[in-house]
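Tokens for chain A. Residues wanted.
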């Protein structure tokens, strides 16, 4: 499923097509078999420019500012170093693999964000507080309030079951594929699906502090952060 989604992206189609081209050439180069220079040089230079121009520009800008602990600068030095040694295949491999890693990271974050956006859309915006005639916006529900969740409804807030039992689908939070039995005294989470039983839940967290809210916040913030690999490389370089 994920592979199909990857190949729907034009960027990945180009990257994998390029890898399919250069990997055989890399293998042939191990046996001193090369394309004519007037074919090889323009081909590899074009690939480096197409996939690596942003990295190289970023690396040169970091060099001009004397900022040496930068992933783009490291990749630029490695690429130009390989080119200087006449190893064009290695230079291309460096750039393309880096582009693949960046694209995969971006794809993963975007996919997670889209899934969470769908979940947030499904999550209830109001809940039935016990003793109240009308439903109440979840932002106005306080800790220790008792809410009622009927079969087939999404649980609106984190809490503890105080009455009833049910099978609850927690896959959106825990990743577990099978519904879990919930009895009195057990925790339940906002955004999970109450499959079959009537539940009364004592709220333990307000809407802004639920487990779902924290997952959404962390996922979207991660898009603004560098990958752990990039951080490690920059720390190592400094």
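Reply:
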């Amino acid at each position: 499923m994920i592979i199909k989604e990857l190949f729907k992206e034009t960027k990945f189609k180009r990257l994998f097509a390029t890898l399919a081209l250069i990997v055989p050439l890399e293998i042939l180069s191990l046996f001193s078999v090369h394309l004519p220079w007037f074919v090889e040089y323009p081909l590899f230079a074009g690939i480096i420019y197409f996939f690596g121009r942003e990295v190289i520009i970023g690396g040169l800008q970091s060099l001009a500012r004397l900022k040496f602990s930068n992933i783009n600068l490291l990749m630029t030095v490695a690429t130009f170093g390989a080119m200087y040694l006449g190893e064009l295949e290695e230079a291309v491999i460096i750039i393309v693999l880096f582009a693949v890693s960046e694209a995969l990271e971006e794809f993963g974050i975007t996919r997670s964000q889209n899934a969470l956006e769908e979940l947030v859309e499904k999550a209830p915006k109001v809940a039935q507080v016990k003793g109240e005639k009308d439903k109440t916006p979840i932002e106005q529900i306080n800790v220790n309030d008792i809410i009622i969740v009927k079969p087939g409804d999404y649980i609106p807030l984190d809490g503890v079951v105080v009455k009833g039992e049910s099978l609850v689908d927690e896959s959106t939070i825990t990743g577990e594929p099978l519904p879990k039995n919930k009895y009195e005294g057990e925790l339940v989470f906002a955004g999970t699906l109450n499959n079959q039983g009537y539940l009364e839940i004592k709220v333990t967290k307000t809407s802004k502090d639920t487990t779902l809210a924290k997952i959404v916040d962390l996922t979207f913030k991660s898009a603004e952060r560098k990958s752990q690999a990039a951080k490690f490389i920059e720390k190592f370089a400094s």
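The helical segments are 2-8, 10-29, 37-64, 71-84, 88-122, 171-174, 211-222, 228-237. The chain has two domains: 2-120, 126-205.
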